[in-house]
Amino acid sequence: MISDRERLTQLVPRTLLRLAAWSLCLIIIGWAVFYFAQFIATLHIVVLPVAVALLLTALLFPVTRWLRNRGMRPIYATWITILIALAVLGGIGWFIGLRANDEFPRLVEQVRATAKTIENWLYTGPLHLQPNQITAWIDEVTKQVTAQRNQITQTVLTGATVALEVLASIVLLLFVTFFLLKDGDRIWSWFLQAFGGAAPRVDRAGRAAWVTLSHYVQGTVAVAAVHGVIMGVVLAGMGVPLWAPLAVLIFLASFIPIVGIFFAGAVATLVTLGAKGPIYALIFLGILVVEQQLENHVLQPLIVGRALKFHPLAIILVLAVGGIVAGIAGAAVAVPVAAVIYRALPELRGHQRALPPAPGPVPEGPPGPVPEGAPGPVAEPPEPDEPVNEKSPQPRE
């Protein structure tokens, strides 16, 4: 007799059956990913501060570890680290506010003078525009702003709600960062208890992910600092007002690959255009492009690229997905999340992968130093069906 399976194979080609099975699996996976993304988006006020706290912990942990290695208690080392970070941020904010207060009036005067020069060029230049044409354009812009007054008011009210959410997120971020610096080892040990026999692989994956995250954060901060300092010196040398806030904006925008520098560079170029005219704006734009190319082809590969080994196309696609899912915040954390997953998955499968050496003091364990006397990472026993060979080479990347 012909079985049901053979009868089904006779009716439907085997290739089509395999495609149907794969399609069903992809539909189920896509459904699960979609609802998981919806769940994360619902909890964005919690998920985003925790993600940023992990990045800050990776950046600040070397200071905490150095203090603890000098015999300081964990609670005191953590408090000193947090206070140092707040002092640095406060000093930068005070310096920016001082410079902005002194230079903003001069910027307004320079913008007015530049606007007058451009207006005269439009009248007497090759375009030969008439004054009534420019007046008509200004009147049209005024009408559009008046027509959208209600929408602008609604946006301001929505901005007040967003400000409250941001304040709550900052408080949560500080709490999570503090406890990750202080009790990161205990949190990780407690987390591993939920995996039972799979704990050794999860432990290896977590440690590989932490090393990768530390490489990314410290390398990105170093590259962004060099970028901000160089552009700040260029702006100050040109005599552009608000050069300090613009340098900080370029530094912060460097954390969003590709997209951030376009935004910060456009703002700095517009300010230079309004303050110093088109010639200085073109000079600044040229220096910005050259410096950005040097950063992408020299600094990034030397400092960050060795740890991530991501192709530029992969970075662009990851940024696009992160931006679509969570906007600017998603684009900011998309690359480190993808790098962490890329490095952790082989460890979950049991494949040992060699990690590159750290560019600086990077923790070799989970987010938090292991106290003296604490057990190290759990060693996974060999598989029963595989012979143990101590001299077998490790698989290469």
UniProtKB/TrEMBL annotation:
Gene Ontology biological process: transmembrane transport
Compartments reported by the entry: Cell membrane
Membrane association type: Multi-pass membrane protein
Main localization category: membrane
Membrane-traversing stretches: 16-37, 43-63, 75-96, 156-181, 216-240, 246-271, 278-294, 314-342
Keywords: Cell membrane, Membrane, Transmembrane, Transmembrane helix, Transport
Record InterPro entries: AI-2E-like
GO terms under cellular component: plasma membrane
The keyword Cell membrane appears for this protein: yes
Protein origin, superkingdom: Bacteria
Bias (Pro residues): 356-381
PANTHER family reported in the protein's UniProt record: PERMEASE PERM-RELATED (PTHR21716:SF53), TRANSMEMBRANE PROTEIN (PTHR21716)
The protein's name in its UniProt record: Putative PurR-regulated permease PerM
Natural source organism: Streptosporangium album
